[in-house]
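User: hey, got a sec? need Late embryogenesis abundant protein LEA-2 subgroup domain-containing protein folded
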Amino acid sequence: MCDECCGCFGEYRRFALGFCIGIAILAAVAVIVVLLLGYGRVRHLGVDVDDASLRRFELATTSPGTAVAYNLTLTLAVRNRNWAMGATFRSLEADYRFDGQRFDRVAVVASYALPARKTAVFRLVSGDDGALAALGSAGVKEYRKEKREGVFDIEVGLSGEVRYQLHRTWCKLEAKCPLRLQLRPEDGAEVFQKTTCDVLKSSQRGC
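Assistant: Yep! Here you go:
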């Protein structure tokens, strides 16, 4: 009788051991799948201009070219769209362009670690009484046209580098944000429509 009972318990122990091994294997596979989904495929950062205010935008002819006097305030939002991977970006800068020509460059942040599913917000306040811009006659003509219409097309170009968690490569980060801005008086208010920027795909391998 005792031998029969011991045999039953032995069978139970083997079944329990096999069941535990099976669960462990399934758990390991699940972890590997989660790691591959979370860290294998990169979702690039998203960039938005949440707010913008143009207080001044004037053009002056100088020797040997043209100069822009301006005051511009921007609120940039950089989103990490990955649900598992943190991202670190560095040397982030914003170029301001009119009619395809850059008239100023502004430092956004030297280095920033952005956790997964989080958003970093940067407020940029910049201006110049005579920022050089190689507009040429076509650019001057476009400026006069837009000044008559009361709306200026200004492009913000974002550039820097980004590296994602568990990845070695520093990838180029480039985005273009086309803005249509009216001159806003000091005591005036204007509703700005949030603008989603076009994040350019990197040609680097692994990015």
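Quick note: Confidence is low (pLDDT under 50) at residues 1-5, 30-39. Let me know if you need anything else on Late embryogenesis abundant protein LEA-2 subgroup domain-containing protein.
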